[in-house]
């Protein structure tokens, strides 16, 4: 299960109810009568002013142009509406033909296991989608018979990626003569130089995902692909007292003691962390690309840049949420045609130009220079199998465990006790899978 969904800003819409989920909120008709009586029914939950909302609107317009006799009914939903009621609705004759849905074992994987989603493996190969998406970005699109991600069958098609990277206040780096870091040692050297100048270097938020993301990033500094697969895909035993997690909690504790981030950050939320960076109180923020658009809008008075986090070869990230086709969809071929348009060069470039990360566009195709920084960074991770998912994914409810454990560490708990806190629910969940 992924709790990552609650970490990204979403447009506030009406509260989710099954009744509301069945009722169209907006509808768009094709230019003529329905060809052969066909209608494409499509759901998504993206803000119309965001990069993805603009891309999906352009894809709908392109679909209408290429299918002039087909009626298109688009229904704007909230993320929560689809998340909470998808199983019930997709098992009825009210199922749409195609919808945007959350990736992960407890979402796409669960519906696939229940037989509610169409197996897209053959069409993904025929239409070339599978060849456009890297192995690491496709893991959350593929599931096995148990609904476990990383299987052989494609049940979703992601169009964009998400990942954690470093954001730098270039003006403060220049003012204090700090070199941009290229590895963990030079990253720590930059932290030390800022701290010596009286500046707390790292933005952070203990009461939200950023602090626990740090734990996983630090573990990844000592991890290889086998460790990631063992932890995320249950392919082998994970030692919570091994070098990976031990390095993470020890380094986190050391950075707290050195003042690289502050203990008072323990109660902050993710938006508080971004405010630390935007207000120039902290020169470095390590966070998701989902903050990128807001930073672009909010930062007016200093130069900043984005780059891969230099402390490890892997980072938190995955393919984004994805298009799925319900088993009970009435017009699956039309759904496939729409997905194909979202994977086209035109729509993929639009995603990139608007500040998100397209999975099927090359960085050099994007003209927006700031967006190129983001896409270049993601391309490096995709090319090296560097997306290691998120720390809370392996266990249902694990997100809350990570927040609690990290806060305990910030409040003075011993590293060994924090590792025990993280290990207990993981071990308990594994026992239920046997």
Automatic annotation (TrEMBL):
Organism superkingdom: Bacteria
Pfam families named in the record: SBP_bac_1
InterPro entries reported for this sequence: Bact_solute-bd_prot1 (IPR050490), SBP (IPR006059)
Signal peptide (UniProt feature, chain positions): 1-29
Gene3D superfamilies attached to this UniProt entry: Periplasmic binding protein-like II
Keywords linked to the UniProt accession: Signal
PANTHER family named in the record: ARABINOSE-BINDING PROTEIN-RELATED (PTHR43649), DIACETYLCHITOBIOSE BINDING PROTEIN DASA (PTHR43649:SF12)
Name of the protein described by the UniProt record: Extracellular solute-binding protein
Organism this protein belongs to: Streptomyces pathocidini
Phylogenetic placement of the source organism: Bacteria, Bacillati, Actinomycetota, Actinomycetes, Kitasatosporales
